[in-house]
Amino acid sequence: MSALILIVEDEPDLSSTLEFNLEKEGFKTRVAATGEEAIRLAAEPPAPDLILLDLMLPDISGTEVCRRLRQDPATRPIPVMMLTARSEEIDRIVGFELGADDYVTKPYSVRELLLRIRAVLRRSATSPSEAAPESAEIQFGCLRIDLEAHRVWVEDEEIPLTALEFKLLHTLMSRQGRVQTRKQLLQDVWAIHADVNTRTVDTHVKRLRQKILAAGDYIETLRGVGYRFRTAPPDEARV
Ligand code: CA
After folding, report:
1. pLDDT band at residue 94 under the 50/70/90 scheme
2. 84 CA to centre of ligand 1 in angstroms
3. Distance between Cα 113 and ligand 1 center (Å)
C-alpha cells in the first residue's frame, strides 16, 4: 500500500515539484498551500502517513501548525518533517516545543528528501524489537507504555510523545541494562546513517527525559559512550 504524504508548501513551483516527484516514486499526495488548510487536510480521513511541512507559510507559521497538530490526538501520531531554510531554528523544530520528527533544510535535493521520507516512514511503521513477542503494555516503575496505541503514562498522567520519541523510549526500554551507544541508537531509532550526528541523539534523549518527568531517571547517561535504561526502577527499594 502506498503511503499518503501531505505536502504543505505555499510556493507553487516547489509544491508541484514535490507532488510530481513523490507520485513518481509511488506515493499518494495531498497538497495544502496554507497552514489552516494543512490542519484541515491533516485531520481528513484517510490520515496522511507523513506531513512535509514548510516553515514559512503565508497565514500561520509552520511551527504553529506543528504545535496544533501535536495538540490534537487525531493528528498527533502523524510524523512531521519540516522544510526550512533557516538552520538556526532546527533545535526548536525537532525539539521539545514542537516535536517534528525530522527536518530538511532548503535547498534540498529530491533524492535526499526521498531518503529521509522513507526513513521516517520506516521508523513509524516498525517496532524496534519485532522478533520478541511483546504484550501490549509495559510497566516499569511509574512508567507505563502501550506498544500498540503508542501511548505513554507517567504516574497515570499521559505524556504526549512524538513518533520518534516513542521509538527512542521503547528502544531503550527493550534493552534494559544494556549500554546503547549513540551510534547504535542513530542506526536503530533514526534508521539513517548520513546527515544526522550523534548530537541529535543527545538532544532527543534530553528532551525525552524532560517530558517523562520522574521516569527520566530511568535513562542513565554513560559519559562519552551512550545511554542505558535501568534494569530496575531506582525507587523500588524504598517501597
Ligand atoms: Ca514558504
Report:
1. low
2. 8
3. 17
